[in-house]
Amino acid sequence: xxxxxxxxLASLLTLPQLQVAEVLSLRAEGTRQRDLARALGVxxxxxxxxxxxxxxxxxxxxxxDEREPEWIRTVQLHQVLANSYGFGRAAEHEMTYLPLELLxxxxxxxxAPVGRDHQRLxxxxxxxxxxPDRVREQFRQAPAAAQDILLRLAVxxxxxxxxxxxxxxxxxxxxTPLRWAVHRGLLVFxxxxxxxxxxxxxxGAALRPDFRAPFDTAPPAPPSITIGTASIDxxxxxxxxxALASVVTLLxxxxxxxxxxxxxxxxxxxxxRKLARLIESDEEGVRFWLTVAGMNGLIGITGDRVxxxxxxxxxLKLDPAEQFGRLLDGWFRMPAAPLLLDGRPxxxxxxxxxxxxxxRVTLAAVLASLRGGRGAAGLxxxxxxxxxxxxxxxxxxxxxxxxxxxxxxxYELMGVGALFAPTSLCHALATGDHAKLEATLxxxxxxxxxxxxxxxxxxxxxxxxxSASLSALLDLAADRESRGGGSTWRFTESSVRRAFDAGSxxxxxxxxxxxxxxxxxxxxxxxxxxxxxxxxxGVVRVRTVGSVLRSEDVAxxxxxxxxxxxxxxxxxxxxxxxxxxALSPAETLAxxxxxxxxxxxxxxxxxxxxxxxxxxxxLQRAVEEPDDSxx
Length: 631
Description:
Elements: H1 3-10, H2 15-24, E1 31-32, H3 33-40, H4 47-58, E2 62-64, E3 71-74, H5 77-80, H6 91-94, H7 100-110, H8 118-129, H9 132-141, H10 144-155, E4 159-160, H11 163-171, H12 177-183, E5 197-198, H13 201-207, E6 224-226, H14 229-256, E7 259-260, H15 269-278, H16 283-295, E8 299-302, E9 305-308, H17 310-316, H18 320-332, H19 354-368, E10 374-376, H20 379-389, H21 391-394, H22 397-414, E11 417-418, E12 421-422, H23 424-431, H24 434-444, E13 453-454, E14 459-462, H25 468-477, E15 479-482, E16 487-490, H26 493-501, H27 506-516, H28 524-536, E17 547-550, H29 554-562, E18 572-575, E19 578-581, H30 585-594, E20 601-602, E21 608-609
Antiparallel strand pairs: 1-3, 2-3, 4-5, 6-10, 7-9, 8-9, 11-12, 13-14, 14-16, 15-16, 17-19, 18-19, 20-21
């Protein structure tokens, strides 16, 4: 099994399971169950030990030997759980690069089979050292000076670096206490550690007096309080609706003005703060929503800027429950913890963190284990449970605290947790009940509204989530004043003009507003304002002009307007002596000259703009003259 796969499986172990695995990792070639139990301070048939071994067996990390059932074999746990309890690495690791001749000498001294297969020699030596009785027998036969060295390394640092002893080991062939231990595999000198010898973990575990590994079989019981399911779900539903509104608003803002990316990657703090002001959120929320949207494929990179992806338009057409369900699915297992990176650019590669996905899912199980209507008394209890359930990933309670705070904030933002308690969304996620999840999403986020309440003060109120078409209409013709559980827009002269500028006529706009109005009722003040502005719109028009032609010869200008070859200038009479051209002054002059006319450019003050030939000069000689001083 690959090391990465072993690590992934080990990351899912609870604290007692990991503690058993750590003891097993001390002996790469296997451990007798009675030796394992002795190290843990329990009986060999202890129910908690049997349960932990069963979990390791189910995970494919450890299993009883078919020929010798008392022996427990493992995958290469020693590669993942190295240096447990202050011991060195396993013999298999320490002896990998020893020369064949030395391995043969060690195998001979230990009474193991001697051959010429390097890997088999390492395994055979490791199998002898895995038996603590044989290690202790070798220790009893050791010279007193060697025993002293071995005991010191067993209870302290597993490395020995006395310069004189090491020099003698390298340069002399005479017997020394250190050489005696090296020739029996009790110490290993492989050059990997420089000027030091190392004690394999098998030897240290056998020789450390009264070695006992911790075995915490009782999970912590965090205090809980009664809150009430209705209160919890009410808070969660409000957060979910606010979350959906925040994502839509944020991505629409990015669509209007794509957000620049830093050269080093990510979106800088200045842009994050700017977005926070625009969508009435905080920096934490912007950072989180950008990551969630990115994980769901709703944003992408265009050049050096971030903008909504094509998928965003399709996502907007879904019902609110479906929209949020997609966000929820991408968030729950996303390998990122954006709220741990406060103060850094958003959407950076350093957000990638596989462990955060494991802990996010585990937190759902922790919360779901609370009885209905109850919540934790505080984050401390949740942190203790995460540290117990996923110790390899979370660390101890102190190490797990920052991640727990970040994840709990995510739970609050997504409506999965509220008041330190699980919402119905959390229970559905923890159990994997898709039918319950879909039903809860529909309860939390009702279908989008296609109608809006119009009031005589020129406001429009949507009590629920507005549909994409309704939002598009009102965002075009009115200014949005609030979002979340309910949205409010206000019609103003400038907002209505904005709709006219986008191509609507007064009749068309009123027809769309009437179709969206609850009961088809449009207040008179709004009708009057739209009709009045519709009559005024376009009375004065602004046209783009590339340049103008001016001449006191009105007949000549009339002739120029009729020349076919000058049709591309799109000449229009602005006054009897002035024509406009769609092309720039330079292009217009060139076209007139090509048609046989002799126009001249004109300065802003009315004087002729003379065209003098450009004279370019180089600042450096192409060939340097020889330096006479060198001659």
